[in-house]
Each structure stands twice: as structure tokens, then as C-alpha cells.
């Protein structure tokens, strides 16, 4: 039982570190947050929050974007479609942060760089034991 608790505590610690980095990155910006089906709560304030399925209804453009747990369960084709729709709602130069659990196609820093480089300037990729997150400026 203690091993399970240690594992859970390590994931919580990793998530808190991610939360702090996201909060610092997006502070003071007008943020569009998109949440996947099982997104956890974040302490980062947002301007507009929508579920992934509602993204197409957003018409305005934002200076920052946060998407959590939107890619992990999508196929490669669905990921490309989501990212195109997501970036259409962000201004050029917008600060972008995405986070998810590690999973197929999103496990290694190289896979994440390949996925985000077409959309990004100054790409920062971080991969922890459970979660990954990327920060960049929208190209």
C-alpha cells in the first residue's frame, strides 16, 4: 500500500510543478482554455473556458491558450485536426501551453517536438514520469 501512495504523491508533486509553471507562463494574459474529457482543475485564471468538443464555437482570437488533456486519447489525424482548430483561435505570437498524460505518440521529447514544431517558435518541451507539457509562441 505504501508504494501505491508514494506513486500517487509523486504524480501530485509532478502535477503541482506543472501547475506552477503554467500559472507563471500565462500570468496577466487573456487566455482561452480548452479542456479534454478528463481534465483536472487548474489554479490558472482563464478568460474563456470550453470543452474540447466546443472549440469550433469560439470565434474570437486570444493572446494565450491553455489546452489540458486534449491530445492523449486522439489518433495522429485527430491530433492534427485539433491543433489546427486550436491555433486558428490564437493570435500569431500567442503564448501557448499544452499538457497531457504521456501516451502513444506523445511519450518522448522528440515525438512532442515533431508534433508542435510546425506551430511553434521558442518551443519548450518537458516530459515527466507521468505528464508532459509544452510551452511556445504560436508561429
Explain this structure:
This protein is of the alpha/beta class and 139 residues long. It has one domain: Rossmann fold, CATH 3.40.50.150. 33% of the residues lie in helices and 32% in strands. It is built from three helices and six strands; from the N terminus they run H-E-E-E-H-E-H-E-E. The protein has helices at 2-26, 76-88, 109-116, and strands spanning 31-35, 48-51, 62-68, 90-101, 120-127, 131-138. Strands 2-1-3-4-6-5 form a six-stranded mixed beta sheet, sandwiched between helices. Strand 3, helix 2 (76-88) and strand 4 form a beta-alpha-beta unit. The longest helix has 25 residues, at 2-26. The protein is globular. The mean pLDDT is 89.
**First-residue to last-residue Cα separation:** 47 Å
Number of helices: 3
Number of strands: 6
In CATH terms, what is the fold-level topology? Rossmann fold
Per CATH, which architecture? 3-Layer(aba) Sandwich
Shape call: globular
Mean pLDDT reading: 89
Relative strand content: 25-35%
| Computed CA radius of gyration, to the nearest angstrom | 15 Å
Low-pLDDT stretches are none
Text of the CATH class: Alpha Beta
Helix content: 25-40%
- Alpha-beta content class: alpha/beta
Q: Which homologous superfamily in CATH is the superfamily? A: Vaccinia Virus protein VP39
**How many strands, what sense, and barrel or not for the largest sheet?**
6 strands, mixed
How many domains make up the coordinates? Answer: 1
Order of helices and strands: HEEEHEHEE
Q: Kindly report the spatial arrangement of strands forming the biggest sheet.
A: 2-1-3-4-6-5
Amino acid at each position: 500500500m505504501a508504494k501505491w501512495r508514494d506513486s500517487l504523491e509523486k504524480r501530485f508533486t509532478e502535477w503541482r510543478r506543472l501547475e506552477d509553471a503554467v500559472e507563471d507562463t500565462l500570468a496577466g494574459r487573456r487566455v482561452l482554455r480548452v479542456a479534454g474529457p478528463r481534465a483536472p482543475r487548474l489554479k490558472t485564471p482563464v478568460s474563456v473556458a470550453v470543452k474540447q468538443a466546443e472549440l469550433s464555437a469560439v470565434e474570437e482570437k486570444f493572446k494565450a491558450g491553455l489546452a489540458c488533456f486534449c491530445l492523449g486519447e486522439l489518433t495522429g489525424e485527430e491530433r492534427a485536426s485539433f491543433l489546427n482548430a486550436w491555433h486558428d483561435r490564437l493570435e500569431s505570437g500567442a503564448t501557448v501551453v499544452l499538457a497531457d498524460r504521456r501516451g502513444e505518440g506523445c511519450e518522448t521529447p522528440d515525438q512532442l517536438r515533431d508534433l508542435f514544431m510546425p506551430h511553434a517558435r521558442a518551443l519548450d518541451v518537458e516530459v515527466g514520469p507521468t505528464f508532459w507539457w509544452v510551452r511556445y509562441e504560436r508561429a
